[in-house]
Each structure stands twice: as C-alpha cells, then as structure tokens.
Amino acid sequence: METAFAVDTLNNFVYFTLVQNYVLNNTVVDHMSTLARWDGYRIEPLDTFVSGGALCATFYKHKLFLGNIGDLYLSFPPDTPDFYDTRSIAMWDPKDRKYYDLKGGVGGNYPFIYAMTVYHDTLFIGGEFTYTGDSANNNIDTLNHGIAKWYMEDDPGCWYIEPRIYFNHSALDTFYIPYDADSISIYLENNNPYVDSWQWGLGDGGSDTVQCLYHTYHDTGVYNVKITVTFDDSCQASYTRNLVILKDTTGSSDTTSVIYARISKSFKIYPNPAKDRFTVEANTYNFDDVLLKVYSGIGYNKRVLALHSGYNRKEVNMQDSRSGVYFVSLVRKGKIIATKKVILKR
User: What three-state secondary structure class fits 66?
Assistant: First the structure.
C-alpha cells in the first residue's frame, strides 16, 4: 500500500499516512488512511480520509498537499460515513485541521498524481491526467496533459509555528533526583531549528536564549517550562509543558525513569540512510526485557529483536524491505523508551 511522507522543516515534524480497512455497516468498503505526524518521540493522529493511500505529499505555503491514485475521498468531519471526492488531490490545513478540495482536482481516464514540487513560489503537479477541474459540472479549467500548477497567496498570521518541548531526549515528563544527590540535570529541547530566536522560562526563575540546553533542578515539584520562539522578526509562538521532579526514596540511584533516560541517550542507529541493513547500539543497563522493534511507515511490524542487559550492538537486516522511512523503537513492558527514524535508500 502506497504511503506518502512530507516534512515540515520549520517544526521538525514528519507527516505520513497509516492505512487500515474502513468498515461501514459491517462491510469493508475501502481502505481508511489516517493522517498522522511524528515529532521524533510520539505519533500524533490528526485526521482521516478514505482512499487507497496517498501516493505523494508536500508542503506549500505551510499547508500539506496530498496526491493520490484515482479519486481521493475525504471525511468532513472525520470518522463519519459521509465522504467527498476531491479528484486525486486535496489540501490539509494545519491551522484549522481540516481538508479542502482544489477546484475539482484533476481528471481523465483513471487519473493519478505521482509527484509534487514547489518552484518559484508555485506548486507544480505531475501525473497522468488530461484536464483540471470538474467535467461533471462542465467546469473544466483547462486541458493539462500530465502537468499542472497551483498558486495561492500566503495565509497571514503566525499559525504555522508550532513549538514543542521535550525532556531528556524522550517523551517523558517525570524524573527523579537520585537518592544520594540533591539535584538533577534535565536536557531541554525545542523542535524549531530555523526560527530567529528562543526564549526559555525554566519554571524555577531561570531563563535562557538557546534552542536546547541542560538545566539543573535542585528541588522537587512541578515546573511550568515555557518556550517562546520568534520567526521573521514579527511572528511569535509559545508552548508550555509541565516538568515533574520527584525525589527517589528507594535507596537506589537507578530508578526506572533515570535508566530510561540513559538508555535513550545511548540509543544509536547507523548508517542512516542505510541500504540493506543498519546497526543499532543501546545500553539497557540492568534491564533484560527490552525489545528492539522496527516498524514500517504505515505501522506494520517488520522486526522484533530481544536485547540483553548491558551494552547491545545489533545488525538489522532489511534486504526484504523496500526503500522508505522506518521507525526503530526500544520497548519495555509495552512502553516505548525511545524511537528513532531510519531511512532505507537504494
């Protein structure tokens, strides 16, 4: 099943589609593709559409365009039996999290779109189609044999900046001061590498103006950590996340959250991109029940390898898998400790 990927470089998100069966009145009527995005640590479902799977995707003016084989059916709103045919192409707007059709799309004898790219502030679309517009309503814009273009004005405002905060290279938000220490150092990470400036409020009166930093917390409590980013001199966006610091009272410096943070920090994949195989390194410390799982971009489980306690170095053979984006997770007792993206490129 074809799956489309697109990267929002400003926010460091990977958008993709996950394909599953769509059931209506106890009958499988088509494949439902769920639009989702990956922030480096978590997958966030966004919306749904019914189709055979999007074939290509790209960002244009900070909005996501999806191209498909044949008709592209969209749900407005999602998860309802009412779907609308957008004729092979549609736009998903992150601002209001809603799909829009594009003036009848493209048409012809089984039309499809297989490539999109932005050039000189215009979106160019390539595929197999003979016209753009809606022939059913005699609203054909023009005859276009395999290539067309789409232009729109910028959508004003700063809605497209979506800052996030991550702690200790993970999706965790709770950490423990070791029993034999009076403080803990936390790595604070923002996802916006290309903005002009960063302003941190660290929750304990401290502040900083870099994208990522280590900060030491001396007391237990809930810290309201805030990041404000500025882009193009005038656009600002803020994000706040609670950081929970507790004291380990178990008499051991190796609490689960501390070890998980260490495991995540030791997690490496190389080469990346890879051709037929790649190597994973990870130190699982005293845990002997950590699994290494490899998933395809549409969520299929491709590999499961058991890791032993201590240092692990595993070669993962992917010769039977096609080129694309895959996700590699370290999992313990059903909980994801860390995930990295790897690209197979042949």
Answer: strand
Residues 6+ apart with CB under 8 A from 195: 10, 161, 229, 230, 231
CB 33 within 8 A of CB 298: no
Residue 73 is predicted with a pLDDT of 52
Q: What are phi and psi of 266, to 5 degrees?
A: -85, -10
Q: Is the distance from CB of 246 to CB of 221 less than 8 angstroms?
A: no
Indicate the residue type of 187.
Y
Please give the pLDDT value at position 253.
55
Beta strand ranges found along 219-310 (DSSP E): 221-231, 235-247, 268-270, 277-283, 290-296, 301-307
CA angle 225, 227, 229 (to 5 degrees): 180
What pLDDT was estimated at residue 227?
A: 98
For residue 24, what pLDDT is reported? 45
Element (H, E) at 68: strand 63-68
Cβ atoms 279, 270 nearer than 8 A: yes
In which residue ranges of the chain is pLDDT below 70?
1-3, 18-33, 47-53, 69-87, 101, 103-105, 107-110, 133-145, 250-254, 297-299
Q: Which residue has the tokens 């517009």?
A: 133
**φ and ψ of 12, to 5 deg:** 60, 40
pTM recorded for the entire structure = 0.68
Report residue 229 as tokens: 């980013």
Which secondary-structure segment (H or E) carries 256? helix 256-266
Which residues make Cβ contacts (< 8 Å) with residue 98, sequence separation at least 6?
47, 76, 92
Go through the domains of the chain in sequence order and give each one's CATH number.
5-150 (no CATH), 165-247 (2.60.40.10), 267-344 (2.60.40.1930)
DSSP state for residue 204 in the 8-state scheme: S
pLDDT at 259: 86
Distance CA 53, CA 17 (A): 7
Q: At 260, phi and psi to the nearest 5? A: -60, -40
pLDDT value of residue 108: 66
Tell me which amino acid residue 212 is: C
